[in-house]
Design brief:
single chain; six-stranded antiparallel beta sheet
């Protein structure tokens, strides 16, 4: 009976462990994202279109469930670059405001006080903030405050503000600190199948059937030829007599 209980308890513990590579998410367009654990947020003052300049009006709380990875991933990668302004999985207390989203890791205020805060939480991912506190700099009028990261670089918190100023993340590179979990996620991309799609601006997108490995797909996309539609000023796919897409666009615009 004791052995049976021990096996059962062990099974429960194993069931609670996250699956390998769960940090990675790929959307239908082939874009790669880092899944963020709960507790990641940024606060900032209101922003006005079209320039998205800060102009006061109180602070809003913004969260992201995912951030976009800009780097091309491979098994030997030691760091990744994050698109801090991507708003694909963003929401804030104003109801979304995707026209002027707050940057990831931002804390900006306009009340001449250190009243804005932010948290970056990378717990459960294979990454850490590469430069720790040095990844942030002061921006805007009268900016003050500071950001502090724990020794592992997995958790960074900040309180900043100013006269429409504060702390922004200038270096959004993350270091790979868990090689096994990182490679497990990257292999999901490598093992996935893709197809070159799009009559304009072609790109490799994941498909369930009939696809090929990503590297082969990218070569196929580059090899496809296009001709310029002089009416729309767009390059369209052509199975004969065309030129590579980038060359076509350079002469078509």
């Amino acid at each position: 009976m004791a052995i049976a209980l021990l096996i059962t308890a062990s099974s429960i513990v194993l069931a609670q462990q996250p699956s390998c590579g769960e940090w990675l998410y790929q959307d239908g367009d082939g874009k790669i994202f880092l899944n963020l654990p709960p507790g990641d947020f940024a606060t900032g003052t209101a922003r006005r279109k079209p320039s998205c300049a800060y102009w006061g009006g109180g602070l809003a709380h913004a969260t992201r469930t995912k951030v976009q990875i800009m780097s091309k991933l491979n098994l030997n990668s030691t760091q990744i670059a994050i698109n801090t302004s991507d708003a694909s999985f963003y929401t804030d207390a104003r109801g979304g405001h995707l026209d002027c989203p707050f940057s990831w890791g931002m804390a900006v205020g306009c009340e001449f006080d250190i009243d804005a805060s932010m948290v970056i939480n990378l717990t459960g991912t294979p990454f850490a903030v590469q430069l720790r506190e040095k990844a942030w700099n002061h921006h805007g009028a009268g900016s003050e405050g500071s950001v502090t990261c724990n020794p592992t670089g997995k958790m960074c918190t900040g309180k900043c503000g100013g006269g429409c100023g504060g702390c922004l993340m200038d270096n959004a590179n993350l270091t790979v600190v868990d090689r096994q979990d990182f490679e497990c996620g990257v292999k999901k991309i490598i093992n996935a199948k893709y197809a070159c799609q799009g009559t304009t601006n072609p790109s490799c997108k994941p498909v369930d059937f009939g696809g090929i490995p990503l590297e082969a797909c990218e070569k196929e996309c580059v090899a496809q030829t296009y001709i310029c539609n002089t009416g729309t000023r767009q390059c369209m796919y052509s199975n004969a007599g065309g030129i590579p897409y980038n060359e076509c666009m350079a002469g078509c615009l």
